[in-house]
Inverse folding.
């Protein structure tokens, strides 16, 4: 068994405002750095200024993989739901991805996860064209998701049972301890925006220790989908 750790919303603070100088994120990142935990850092490119980007470049250690989290995480409504990319043309989707990739190029982005966990095949294909190898899916909320390779990009479904929501850590600890063994890695999803108020809870550190005990891997160790 192994686990990939995914962290959403990097660039925002707990109020979903720009986290200038990474004031809050530094505390979150330190939790992972102290325990030497590799993780996929889902960064919102449009809210990142030069200083924030340079801080990440200087402090992201080996094992931290930059993932684009949309372009600006725009909460626009498409088909009655929040969706940054839904209803946009292929050209618009590609432009947003290319802008994000270019602005965060010094962080060497390797993948993508869609804001609000909503996406379509056009978006996956656009990520491949931007040389993004990994695409995190949205825990099967709206579609059946499996590990597969589409358009040259590896689609990695996240797991709803360990999709943390800034609370009930004791419940998640028990879920983690009892995860059934399987060949494909699980994905444990954090939102730094939701977790900021709880970083000093003993249960937060205990949860990280349980995740680590299961064997955390970098998403970049997945070279192909094994059936």
């Amino acid at each position: 068994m192994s686990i990939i750790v995914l962290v959403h919303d990097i660039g925002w603070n707990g109020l979903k405002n720009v986290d200038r100088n990474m004031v809050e994120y530094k505390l979150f990142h330190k939790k992972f750095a102290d325990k030497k935990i590799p993780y996929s850092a889902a960064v919102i490119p449009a809210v990142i200024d030069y200083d924030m980007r340079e801080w990440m470049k200087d402090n992201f250690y080996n094992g931290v993989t930059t993932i684009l989290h949309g372009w600006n995480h725009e909460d626009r409504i498409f088909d009655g739901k929040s969706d940054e990319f839904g209803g946009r043309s292929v050209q618009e989707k590609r432009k947003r991805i290319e802008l994000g990739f270019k602005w965060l190029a010094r962080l060497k982005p390797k993948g993508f996860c869609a804001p609000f966990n909503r996406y379509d095949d056009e978006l996956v294909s656009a990520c491949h064209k931007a040389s993004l190898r990994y695409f995190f899916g949205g825990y099967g909320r709206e579609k059946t998701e499996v590990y597969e390779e589409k358009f040259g990009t590896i689609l990695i479904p996240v797991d709803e049972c360990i999709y943390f929501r800034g609370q009930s850590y004791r419940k998640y600890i028990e879920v983690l301890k009892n995860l059934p063994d399987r060949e494909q890695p699980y994905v444990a999803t954090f939102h730094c925006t939701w977790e900021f108020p709880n970083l000093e809870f003993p249960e937060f550190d205990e949860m990280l220790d349980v995740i680590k005990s299961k064997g955390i891997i970098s998403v970049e160790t997945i070279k192909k989908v094994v059936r």
Notes: Residues 128 and 153 are 6 Å apart (CA to CA). The longest strand covers residues 3-10. The mean pLDDT is 94. The helical segments are 23-34, 50-59, 90-103, 121-129, 169-177, 192-195, 202-213.
